Amino acid sequence: MTPLAFLLARTLRREAPLMALSVPQAALLEDLRGRTVALVGNARALATTTHGAAIDAADIVIRINRAPMPAPASHGSRTDWLALATGLPAADRDRLAGARKLWMSPKRKRLSHAVALSHGFYLHPLPDYARLAAEIGAPPTTGLMLIELLARSRMKSLSLFGFDFFASLSLSGHRSAGQVPHDFAAEAAFVAALMARDSRITRAE
């Protein structure tokens, strides 16, 4: 798709041409079959831990948005998949250039042509977003969308790092819980219920 055709599809909210750029969801989930996955959130508290080696030991390391990595000891150093709901500054684009890109946000106007044409690109379907939003009664975070999506795969395990549901705020911004449109209590309850019925999923403290 040319840059002009992409811009028109994005501006006019033509979902079909944009979805045609994505690998099918089934194919994305199949890539996880039998694999150990580390999903790294952006909680500030993660910077005080020594989880880096455990993160890098996973078969697939997934990070979110700007994917801050203050130190290898706490955050590890690999990024295999990058889940996005926002654009990236140039420095972060260069640092995370090799990662497979997953666009999770329903706001397609923020999706760039370069990301959409990157190798292995995945576009999260709008109905999936709407279903999860209805279930928790609020717009879901990128992290929650990923957890719900990954749980549908035949992965071996999913380890969550840097997920304290905004208790320690975020390394990637300075907003308080009241300044973001998410319901973190509902998200914490959703994840707790999911872990209770799916022993593959664990959360590191």
Description:
By secondary structure, the chain is an alpha/beta fold. The protein has a single domain (3-203), classed as sialyltransferase cstii, chain A, CATH 3.90.1480. The chain is 36% helix and 14% strand. The chain contains 10 helices and 7 strands. The protein has helices at residues 3-11, 15-19, 25-30, 52-56, 72-75, 90-95, 113-116, 126-136, 142-151, 184-197; strands spanning 36-40, 60-64, 81-84, 100-103, 122-123, 157-161, 201-203. It has a 7-stranded parallel sheet with strand order 5-4-3-2-1-6-7. Helix 5 links the parallel strand 2 and strand 3 (81-84). The N and C termini lie far apart (44 Å). The model has no long low-confidence stretch (mean pLDDT 94).
Percent helix range: 25-40%
The name CATH uses for the topology is sialyltransferase cstii, chain A
Query: Outline, from the CA principal axes?
Result: globular
| Share of residues in strands | 5-15%
Provide the CATH top-level class. Answer: Alpha Beta
Helix and strand string, N-terminal first?
Answer: HHHEHEHEHEHEHHEHE
- Quaternary structure of the protein: single chain
- What is the CATH homologous superfamily assignment? Glycosyl transferase family 29
